[in-house]
Amino acid sequence: MLCLAAHALAQQLAHAPELRQVPTQRPVIALTVNVVWGTEYVPPIVKALQAEKAHATFFLGGQWAEHHPDVAQMLRQAGMEIGSHGDAHRHVGSLGVEANEREITLAADKIARATGVRPQLYAPAYGELSPAVFQAADRQGVRVVMWSIDTIDWRQSHSPEIIQNRVLSRLKPGAIVLMHPTDRTAQALPGLIKALAQRGYRVTSVGELLREAGRAPQTGEHGGMSRHTAIA
Questions:
Q1: In 10 A of CB 66, how many CB atoms?
Q2: Where in the sequence is the domain holding 208, given as residue range(s)?
Q3: What whole-number distance in Å separates Cα of residue 133 and Cα of residue 140?
Q4: Mapped to the 3 state alphabet, what secondary structure does 98-147 carry?
Q5: DSSP character for 176?
Q6: What DSSP character marks residue 41?
Q7: Cα-only R_g, the chain
Q8: pLDDT of residue 61
């Protein structure tokens, strides 16, 4: 029964229009960081990841990348995967297809100018989804990425220990963890990655997690999967 349930879950995840978790039995998870604020905490987060030889996907706002090209370029040079968080952090769930496409294309242009990478993974602002969001993403050839574990690290009351426990208590192979650039997140990462390693888990980016699961055979340098790659 457990095998049948796991297979059914894998099929459901594989055919969902958005990616929340990658079907795999391997003890690997992806960390994602949505960046439209908290610029001063991005370098400490990268430093914490590098110290543990871990990678993550940084979903950048287009306007943020335009205003902070040095930090955006640092992310690429550090080997982190670059994704898109849209251009202006708008409530995309209430926008039409054309407006959603503009959010994606404007962000992609600005991120490409700042980093040299045109992102192929897209995390809509506020986690808002709609038929228009999916249609716009499909037209632009980007994969919509959500999460299966939310650290809620933006909440001031969430200590590094709470952030760690939210991940560890919900841990599953192929999980995608949502984070933001805060001082608490930077403080939580070293202990979190060590605790994951003690449980046999490794931390990587969304694109690498997809590749390891055999679901993204074509890739772009630090920009996620190829826009022409279909994920069954």
A1: 18
A2: 19-225
A3: 11
A4: HHHHHHHHHHHHHHHHHHCCCCCEECCHHHCCCHHHHHHHHHHCCEEECC
A5: E
A6: G
A7: 16
A8: 98
Could you list the beta-strand ranges (E) of the chain: 18-19, 28-35, 57-60, 81-84, 121-122, 143-145, 149-150, 176-179, 202-204, 219-220, 224-225
Counted domains in the chain: 1
Instruction: Classify residue 4: in a domain, yes or no.
Output: no
Asked if residue 180 belongs to a domain, the reply is yes
Q: Which residues pair with 29 in a beta bridge?
A: 203
Q: In 3D, which of 33, 36, 13 has the Cα closest to residue 23?
A: 13
pLDDT under 50: residue ranges of the chain: 1-15, 217-219, 225-232
Q: What is the pTM (predicted TM-score) of this model?
A: 0.88
In a domain, 207, yes or no: yes
Which pLDDT belongs to residue 47? 98
Question: Which residues are paired to 225 by β-bridges?
Answer: 219
In tens, the pLDDT along 90-149 reads 999 999 999 999 999 999 999 999 999 999 999 999 999 999 999 999 999 999 999 999
Under DSSP, the state recorded for 88 is S
* The two three-digit tokens of residue 189, written as one number: 């990462």
- Looking at the domain assignment, is residue 11 inside a domain? no
Q: Give the CATH number of the domain where residue 191 resides.
A: 3.20.20.370
Instruction: Give whole-number Cα distances, 54 to 49, 78, 80, 105, in Å.
Output: 5, 11, 9, 29
- Please state, in angstroms and as integers, the Cα–Cα distance from residue 77 to each residue in 71, 96, 222, 226, following that order: 10, 35, 9, 20
